Predict the structure.
Amino acid sequence: MPRLTHAPPVPLSTSAPPAEPSLEARLAAREAAMTLRLEEAAVAFEVHTAHIPTEPVDLADVVTVPLTPLPAPVQQPLPDPYPTPVAALLHRAHHRLTTEGWCSGALIDAQGARCLYGAIRAEARGNRGLESSALDVLMDAIRREFGDVDSVPSFNDAWGNGRVPIRMLGQAASLADAHGL
């Protein structure tokens, strides 16, 4: 029977162990790995949410202002930025709703808040031709954004708060000014 002997020793290599990567190299590798994970997460998010219907958000609906009337110690005359009569009337109606309040279901409520039509009528001060022109421009602005709407009162009463109706008055004033009305 042959006699077992130990294997000859393996000579140790004289080369240095592999150097550890530099900090920059490690950061670059980590950034590449994170970028890959973020891209995969973005694709997964798109796939998982593709069936959810969404509507674009209008920042004018998100940015809020107080809808309650602000106490004004002295009623100062409103600066009139529009030189045309219909645009100026719509601007004054917009200012009236933002300072005195908005309501639905009535021209004017018990607290003095008005609807769109009530604010335009108050600012027209009996000038039925000017009032009619302002309502026409307001309906044009509303229909540009919301499609087929029956009337200013029905549009006004369709909202739970005054943010959108008041915003539409401001847009109508700009539209009237652009048309020279």
Residues 9 and 153 are 100 Å apart (CA to CA). The first helix runs from residue 23 to 49.
